Amino acid sequence: MDFDAYARTAVDLVNARLDDLADLRELLGNQQWMADEAIERDVATFRRARNRLRDVFTLGALGRDPEAVGTLNALLEAFPVQPRISGHESNDWHMHITSRGASVSAEYLAGAVWGLAVWLCQFGSARFGVCADDRCGNVYLDTSSNCCRRFCSERCATRSHVAAHRARKRAAVDELTPAL
Question: Three-state DSSP class for 5?
């Protein structure tokens, strides 16, 4: 079972735009049956869960493990898992977290919360991150070998480093410029 894939669905949700049903369907796009069955009511459920999952990342990044765990436990209770075996051929059997009979929000969120809970137990909440670029705010799972990741992407890291470099250059020029 690929718990990392389930944990990444939590990251995708927290970083997703959810202004309307079209945004939700875009988030669910790689799972076509979910995108097709999503309804307006699911948008509100996803938004509430997204806010609570963001709290988990923020608490984890701040080292507030008991609170992150408490929030995850509440989410596990709200979106319980229903494991099932799935596959098309006898050599293709694999596990899914919830049954297809559940609502779109219950199916997606149970997997996302379960994956994040497993990630926390396996790697610790120090591996939960919020992008250090103030203009971004996206969350990520730190998969670096030494737990030193600070940005959600290379793009944010580069943008932040360039801005810091330019600020240092401006400060150096201002320092050398005589006051009038």
Answer: helix
- Say if 162 falls within a structural domain: no
Query: Which residues are CB-neighbours of 121 under 8 A, at least 6 positions away?
Result: none
pLDDT tens digit sequence for 94-152: 887 775 567 899 889 999 999 999 999 999 888 999 999 988 999 999 988 888 888 99
To the nearest 10°, the Cα dihedral for 75, 10, 118, 99? Answer: 70
- The residue type of 53 is L
β pairing state of 139-141 and 84-86: unpaired
| Contact criterion met (CB below 8 Å) for 98 and 111 | yes
| Nearest-angstrom CA–CA distance, 129 and 151 | 8
**Are the CB atoms for 120 and 60 separated by under 8 Å?**
yes
With beta carbons less than 8 A apart as the criterion, state whether 52 and 105 touch.
no
Q: Output the domain CATH number for residue 107.
A: 1.10.3300.10
Residue 176 inside a domain? The answer is: no
Inter-residue contact 96 to 67 (CB < 8 Å): no
CA 14/CA 53 separation, integer angstroms: 7
Pairing of strands 128-130, 94-96: unpaired
- CA 119, distance to chain mean position in Å, is 12
Q: How far from chain centre, in Å, is Cα 151?
A: 13
Q: How many domains does one find in the chain?
A: 1
